[in-house]
Amino acid sequence: MKHFKVKRHKPGRLRAGLAVAAAFILCAMPTAASAATIQQQNNEQNTYADAAKEFHVPQELLQAVAYYQSRFENHGGQVSVDGGYGPMNLRTAMQVEDQRGDPKRPIVNKTITPQGDMTLDKAAQLLNVSPDVLKKDSRQNIRGGAAVLAEKAKQLNGGAMPTSLDDWYAVAGRYLGGDNQQSIQSLVDSVYNTLKNGVSTTTTDGQRLSIPAMPKTAAPDAAKVQNKLQHLGLKDFKFQQSNNNGAECPRQVSCRFIPAGYGANSPDPTDYGNYDHANRPKDMKVNYIVIHDTEGSYTSAIQHFQDLKSYVSAHYVIRSSDGEITQMVPTSNVAWHAGDWYMNMHSIGIEHEGYAASGASWYTEAMYQSSANLVKYLANKYNIPLDRDHILGHDNIPTPSDARMPGQHWDPGPYWDWNHYMSLLTGQQNNDVQSSTRPKNIVTIKPNMATNVQTVNNCVDIADPTTCSDQSAPSNFVYVRTAPRSDAPLVTDPLLHPDGAPGSTRIFDWSAKATSGQQFGLAGQQGDWTAIWFANQKGWIYNPASQPSAVLGRGHTITLKPGLSSAHVYGTAYPEASVYPADVSGPAQSQLSYLFSAGQTYVSDGTPPTDYFYDATIDYSLPHDHEIFKGNDKYIKIWYNHRVMFVKADDVVVQ
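The chain above was modelled as a monomer; its predicted structure follows.
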């Protein structure tokens, strides 16, 4: 957070700013566009102008708040990490999602309210509009955000509207930051920078929106903003510099430490949040780094992880605009981030500000660079190989059971540039492919993202098929088909499509997506098509020599032992039941319905540890609490479909 310089605003400054904004927007229009196209592209810009006028809120500030929270996107009516909806991220109570991924410690039927006000409910009351409408209708959502800002402004100024930009900074900070000091401070800084530098962008549905640069905008007056926030009930609020003490980060990045919430949520000692104390790597090896996106803003993710009742956390959160890093959980501890307890035990989770469905507008070069510097630092600290076997997306993480798999996350999504990211980590594009004079036996997915334009189906409202449409954009994946032709059905997945239907192009359907850096056993070639073993079936990817989407190489693969017709795969590498004492209810190593059949090959990634971290209570009150149980069974980690899986070493032969 910057030190605020004390500058006074001249009367009428905000009104002048609005006039400048209007002039900028008019001047910025492309002269070659038709009048109809211009009108369509600027419907939402006009919506902000209309809402600002209706509720007497400065248009540029209204838009700056929306841009910070959502990049002006509606996000398909989906809820953000902190229970928010739409361009204004109007928030309400939400069902929590247990990211511990431990079937022995499930979170059942928990609902939390966002820190600060439930702005969705307040907007519904002020506009007399249904919350469901506010969730889906961008125009009403923007009006609702303006109405709530106006109400808070009046509360702050004794019934009158603010005339000072500092007062509006305080209103915006309270609107989104709730009672959280760090969140308010970060938000005020971000709104100021947006107003100062301006922004121009086009949303995924073609809306062209702009905020004019106002380089002479005064930095917030810390004392004045602080005084207004204290009048809003935050009596102890005080602007502070970020606390970098204790942050585990490389020197070349901007980094601070804000602790995730940790504490009891009820008298039951098993009910606590939001991570587990450990002593890694002495007790558990850290093998993986998992890349996430926040599905919300930087501030909202930090707020959410601070809430004890969110039952979720990550080790780090990275800001889109400048790559600032906030560490929230020491890497020696186990964060609840991946939805699979075994993978949580052995990984570090890094959240990146943004939404998977509109990743291209969030995943900035500053973010990639900062994240890569952090990952290289962590990989060196924990001796983690810098390859796609160990640097995973959340969408590559399995779950311990069939029931959880369909709901497992798919971030960072199709627009995370794995090629570029891995080149920042290693200096090379994607995994090295082992050279050999022996016949090629593995396929490394390696499309050129800039030219690999794929079409996915996305929805304004995921519950309403009539709002769905195709969007084509540079992507990090290739589709896997049942035959070597472009009109062949996509391969299926028995857990996502139990009726046997083919996979779909829906953006969240990972049934038939093979992503950059993944490696599969070579199953054949025919013309411009290459076959791979993918989820117990032969799948075909389009791989023409003129624009290859994969490369062939030589590496270690596994096949079933002679005499076996099939074997199950697993989402964890837990110990066998016999290692647990009678008074410890360790998780059974649950078989997934996924099979691995004779004649198929999958790429081997070696033998991971077989263990389970029994962390039952917050106060160590049960026998063997916080003990790690190690098994004798051995597993091999493989790329199975879009996700990694585990197979029993006794079932396979390594080639």
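The two ends are 54 Å apart (CA to CA).
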